[in-house]
Design brief:
57% helix; 7% strand; disordered C terminus
Length: 364
Amino acid sequence: MPTQPNQPNTQTGAGMALKERDESHIRAALAGREAWIIDAALQAHQYAIRQGIGMTALAHQAHIPGGSLSQFFSGTYAGSEANVAQRLQDFFRRLEQQELYGDKRAFVETRLSRALWALADKVRVVRRIQWLQSPEQCGKSVSLRRYTADNNRGRTIMIEIPGAAGFGDFIWALASELGIAYSVKLSEKKLRIREALTACDLIIIDEAHLIWNWSDRDIARFLDYLRTDLFSNSARGVLLVETNSDSLTRLAHFKKRTRYNVGQLIGRMRNQVMTLDPADDITAEDVAALVGRYYTPGKATLQRLHTLSTRENLGHFGLVLDVVNEAWSRAKHDKKSLSDTHVETVARETLQQLKTREDLYDRN
């Protein structure tokens, strides 16, 4: 008796949750296909079972349309099954590379991230313009993106200054972040942005130091827009995140160069520019939490990694993770578990390289 529409097929698994299927279902659904196509399907099924995910999550991770993947597993896909199998193979190749090169991106909450979240909360409440500055790779962007994701019901908007042109590109990027169609003209975009920001009480502008590379005209347009439309008479707080830049000095130079009325902007800013200093703000506990994505270091190794993270001019989280990442790759190459020995070796090499860079910096 044929299976009724929308009823699970106990032979091929069609209509069944992925976790309820077994190898026999996959082989029955893809009977007669080339062996490599069946192998790709079996590998994907086993991966989904190990990860405890379903068809939708698997499709998302593998960047395959959910409907196509579901039909592929049921043996009813009208398109090229070879293309779907190839995309599955490509996905597993990426996973192998991530494992080999230690691509561990799971977010880790640190003392520094909690301090940044508290700052964002404060700016939201006091509704002022706040500048935040620090060296690179101290965790500002990743922490604030997590904050935005946790407060994303229209209340928090995070936008990154485009690296290229100027003010017009910022408006286009902001409009895109707010879901405003690309085809809408620039003047109309500004009106729609204003409407879309009605429910927003915090805007985070990342890479804000890039505005100083714009023309004086575009810098002035941005500062005017920041004061009027974004801040909008305390309608919301604005947090501007800079890297290796001194915002007040930049503003002073801009005022001297162009006679721009900086006073109107400063009157809406918090008096204190928040500055992150790796030597003061990166703790050994934070380093241990981040490295914990790879392994648990011994006390002496942790201290050396913490010293790296706070090294003047060069130290930051990114430097530590580069060391552990390289050590991870070497351990994988040797088919061994990551250990303090691997990490210490790479740390010594890195310190020597940093010494060379510092000498070069001093000579220049």
